[in-house]
Amino acid sequence: MHAKKMGKNNNRTVARNGKVMNSEVNALPPQKSVFLAYVLWLFGGIFGLHHLYLHRDRHAFLWWCSLGGYFGIGWLGEIFTIPSYVRDANEDPRFIEEFIKKLQTHKKPPYSGKRFLFMIMIGYLFGQLANMAIPNDMYMAMDFNFLHWLIPFFVALGVWTVGNIGRERGVLWHCLLAAFAAYPIRYFIYDETYTILITSLAAALVFDHASKEWLRTPPKRRGICERFFKFSTAMFIYFSLWGCFFYFNGTITDENGNEVPIHEAFQNFLASAWWTDIKQALKDMYTYAQHHGWYEIWKELLESMDVDGERNAYKVLGLSATASQTEITATYRKLCKTIHPDTVKDESQRATAQQRFIEVQQAYEILSKIKSARIRKNKKVVNDDNENDTIVL
């Protein structure tokens, strides 16, 4: 009986307050490999693939946004820090011991010039992206200039995201207060670039001095579905801002050298005859599929794509699709005599003749192969039908 009780309780520990706790909470996370982390860093590190592997999702997101820490600068600098990242992810005893010493030595995380600079850069990036996404001109009779007051929010969000990487953390509202307090400087400095930079600097200073603290508990181990949802949502918002920038403020140059806003060009495209024809063709295809099935659509699509080169081969030989094998052979022999490179005396035209001769040969081979395959298939079908029709007495 005693042994059975011990077996039931071997996964439980008693805390100081007398409550029974599950020891699985204190179990080590799945161990990560330094070698694999370096492989992912080398082949996908500029997009934060190694950070996703190490469950550093914020870090991975920022690497996506900045192409490896501003075009690979941060990515290259990680060549010496990856072993430390792996020990952190594995909750390695040596890392924990070093972290405890830091907690005992420093009441709050010490100043890091690299992290502080990255906070300013990401805050500036997010703020500038939000600024670019706002329509510069009236759109649908609406003035969207009031959205400029969202810029401090994105600046603060960028600063806060960098500040919460790894074993450091801080609250968002400190950054928000600092960013919104600094942003009105735009009424004195009319260059939005300097305004966003000053706003980002103010938010980073306040976070570094007032908000930053140690993350004393191990990071929460989240499931793959939750991580994917949060990461994909963040990426969707980020690329949506880029999409707004291109749609509202992007331009394309027409054949006359005039710049046309992309949103106007897109609306003109939707009203064009070409798009109307495509839309009608898609509707007709859907109606046809409802009656004949999608397999028939797929067959017609393959035929229109000319994947076997049959249509082009007929075109090269100058024949119709109903031509027989005899006609194909006769036309091929006639063309070989008239376009053979040896019959061309002009050296400048011999290369063109050689290319044309090769095209004719290839076209003949394609059609002969297709015709032979169809003949074999038809013979097989006829033989099968004859066997099925045979009456055994």
TrEMBL record:
UniProt KW Transmembrane helix keyword: yes
Compartment(s): Membrane
Keyword Ribonucleoprotein on entry: no
Residues annotated as domain J: 312-383
SMART domains named in the record: DnaJ
Record key words, sorted: Membrane, Transmembrane, Transmembrane helix
Residues that span the membrane, as ranges: 35-54, 60-77, 116-134, 146-163, 194-210, 231-248
Gene Ontology cellular-component annotations: membrane
Main location: membrane
SUPFAM superfamilies referenced in this protein's UniProt entry, alphabetically: Chaperone J-domain
Topology of the protein relative to the lipid bilayer: Multi-pass membrane protein
Function: May function as a co-chaperone.
Protein's UniProt name: DnaJ homolog subfamily C member 22
Originating organism: Glossina palpalis gambiensis
